[in-house]
Amino acid sequence: MNLLDAFSKIDDYYAPKIIGSVNETYVKIAKIKGNRIPLHAHVNNDELFYIIDGELQMELGDRGEFTLQKGELYIVPRGVKHRVSSKVECKILLIEGKTTRHTGDVSSEITRTIKDQLS
Q1: Residue 109's domain spans which residues?
Q2: How far apart are CA 42 and CA 3, in angstroms?
Q3: Strand, coil or helix: 63
């Protein structure tokens, strides 16, 4: 699979697409631009972010903020409130448990179901 080709098929920001699975996890890609993702947590699952292109701002609730650059990854531990944003388009790869809800314990206008992410 060519990731850049896969990204070319994504039209919407904040709409992860499942591109594969490994055991009990999904491998997803998404484009981020702006700050519409709500602060949320995944109570039972860690979440891995790998930056394919661009810069991603990571906010970890009361733990502070930092920027991830192209080629860097960060694993958000289960239960930690977080949100991501980007000033310009950022392409990311995510690894999440198959039961992980898109925006965790929060529902918003950008929340996508697993079914949405598979299409």
Answers
A1: 3-118
A2: 26
A3: helix
pLDDT in tens, 87-117: 999 999 999 999 888 877 888 888 888 888 8
Can you tell me the distance from the alpha carbon of 41 to that of 17, in angstroms, rounded to the nearest whole number? 20
For the whole model, what pTM was predicted? Answer: 0.91
CATH assignment of the domain containing 82: 2.60.120.10
Please state, in angstroms and rounded to a whole number, the distance separating the CA atoms of residues 23 and 82: 25
Pairing assessment for the beta strands 25-34 and 17-22 based on DSSP bridges:
antiparallel
Residue 32's contacts (CB-CB under 8 Å, 6 or more residues apart) are 13, 14, 54, 56, 84, 85, 86, 89, 90, 92
- The C-alpha atoms of residue 110 and residue 117 are separated, in whole angstroms, by 12
